[in-house]
Amino acid sequence: MTDSGRAIADYWDAAASSFDEEPDHGLRAAPTREAWARRVRGWLPAEPVDVLDVGCGTGSLAELVAAGGHRVTGVDVAPRMVARARAKLAAAGLAGRFLVGDAGAPPVRAGGFDVVLSRHVVWTLPDPERALRGWVRLLRPGGRLVLIEGRWREAGEPWAPYVAGAEHLPWGGGVGADELAAAVRPLVTDLRVEPLDGDAALWGGPVHDERYALVAER
Ligand SMILES: C[S@@+](CC[C@H](N)C(=O)[O-])C[C@H]1O[C@@H](n2cnc3c(N)ncnc32)[C@H](O)[C@@H]1O
Domain range holding 76? Predict the structure, then answer.
């Protein structure tokens, strides 16, 4: 791992203990949790499938995936995030497999997943386009890529790197739907973008930046 990769991993590891305090991270309020549960149900097939959550953090979405009857694997570079994800699913009495690993090369089998899901992760990767190509290879034919992303600032606002080394991130500060779609489109057969910024329940209140889900089929 590079020095900046180490600094980014350390940043998230240190953030793990307070990460769930944000409404859309911990999903502790019932309306926020239900809003995400409803979206997750809409993005996943009805029947139980194998889902990989890349950059799973404390496992909040993985928990919703498992609660929906799916088999979930989470990968995150920060060991404390992974520990919290394991504990969260165990406390809920749900099964889930959680691994420490790099989103750029998740330590899982190629072609082993029906859905690769990732929320708020590509913006903090050093080579997001390479990671996306790798994620598509993890899908079975007909599998689905679900990326929940956004731009964490108003249009035209400058972005301040959150840790040393982050200034080199190509999508630091977030990536707009058009740019992400342009990167994903050559890798998939079908692609749609679902705006999420108008659904205040997802975020614990109104938001004024761009937020969306990109759903694509391999
Ligand atoms: C904004 S958090 C999102 C967490 C989770 N997906 C969620 O939505 O609650 C970004 C996550 O990406 C993870 N992450 C950052 N760089 C990573 C990398 N190179 N490989 C794997 N995980 C990474 C961080 O540890 C952190 O858990």
Answer: 3-217
